Amino acid sequence: MTQRYANIIGWGKYVPSRVITNADLEKTLDTSDEWIFTRTGIRQRHVVSPDEYTSTMATAAAEEALESAGVRARDLGLIIVATSSPDYLTPPVSSQVQHALGAKDVGAFTLVAGCPGFVYGLATAQQFIVSDACDNVLVIGAELISRYTDWNDRATAVLFGDGAGAAVLQVGDEPSGVLSYVLGSDGSGAEHLILPGGGTVAPPSQETLDQGLHYLRMNGRQIFRFATRVLGKALHQAIQQAGLTTDDIDLFVPHQANSRIIESAARYVGLPREKVFINIEQYGNTSAASIPIAMCEALEQGRIKTGDTVAFVAFGAGLTWASAVVKLGEPSMPTPISRLRLSLPSRLFDPITRVTRTTSAGLMKALAGCLALITALRRRGAKRRKDDG
User: Fold this and answer.
1) Quick check: 306 and 282 in contact, CB under 8 A?
2) What is the pLDDT of residue 343?
3) Range of the domain at 127
């Protein structure tokens, strides 16, 4: 039996247009741009407008990822949405996204693992693909934290932002895709990053509102200690499990929570600064959306390309952590012909709506698709002549 691999072949992101800068926060908090940037590396964060939600951000990122992969929503085998800030406690936001994408009858579930949620999602998708349960899986990391933020609390207001990122994983027979992963949890520190109200322990009431229990609370010092202890170790374990060394990693794309924590993890495994991707300055901590947004930006900027090996690592509420080593697969780029389906069955166009960027194999596939289309057109013409004759 041929070995199955879970390749990342498409990606997309969405961030709201509204921006809150450190200068804006100086007007309402006892803080300064210098204080925030020195301790976190953050200059600004994006936050949603009143008509935006976790589901709308997740859908926008997913649509971009599907288009870049050349995969139709209805051809997905599974949708995983990693978030700790869904539109509602029920129904699950994953079903809202599934419906918005037009992925009729496709299975979908919400994964709650805090900031490492996207990496947990990659590991889960990989299991569905290698076990022959699915051929295409969509993994989304989306968070809307601004509506759970007390904007008068300096400990949290300066840190978080909203956004979404997504990746399409597809079965392949070449050794690539998700090469390894490490997942971990330590619930003994749960109180250090918590939203106390709204669950079954403290359901919504006037009392929970008066006490501000519907706002996120964080013990920054304890979280910092936890992160610097586990992040480098988890990253090292994933690299080892993949049978690789630090030299084999083309880029380190970490969870964007704090620039000092990122630098600490990179030092632990001996990664030079030029192999570390940091965009926290522009977005702040977007939790489960952090890594996929950073991955998309790294690709857009040419910091990584298909065929490169990338290391992910994240930590967050739970307390949880996760790391993974991924070799990026070949994405499929839509061509203008994808918009000109005419009256022919859409499947006739599938082979030529996906042209790979650089490989000769991709060119050969495109040429084969062209030949298949020409043959189909000839057959269609012959049938019409026969019917008319």
Assistant:
1) no
2) 31
3) 5-327
Q: How far is CA 290 from the centre of its chain?
A: 7
Q: Count of domains in the chain?
A: 2
CA distance 259 to 375: 56
Look at the chain and count its residues: 389
What pLDDT is stored for residue 357 in this prediction?
35
- Same domain for 294 and 368: no
Assess whether 319 and 347 both reside in one domain.
no
Considering the domain architecture, whether residues 375 and 262 belong to the same structural domain is answered as: no
Question: pTM of the prediction?
Answer: 0.84
Query: For residue 62, what pLDDT is reported?
Result: 98
Q: Other CB atoms closer than 10 Å to residue 127's CB: what's the count?
A: 15
CA distances in angstroms from 85 to 3, 93, 175, listed in the order given: 36, 9, 35
> Domain check: are 136 and 88 in the same one?
yes
Tell me: do 352 and 323 sit in the same domain. Answer: no
Which positions are catalytic? 115, 255, 285
Does one domain contain both 171 and 258?
A: yes
Examine the domain organization and report whether 343 and 228 are in the same domain. Answer: no
Instruction: Tell me which residues of the chain have a pLDDT lower than 70.
Output: 1, 330-389
Boundary-marking domain end, from 281, 296, 327: 327
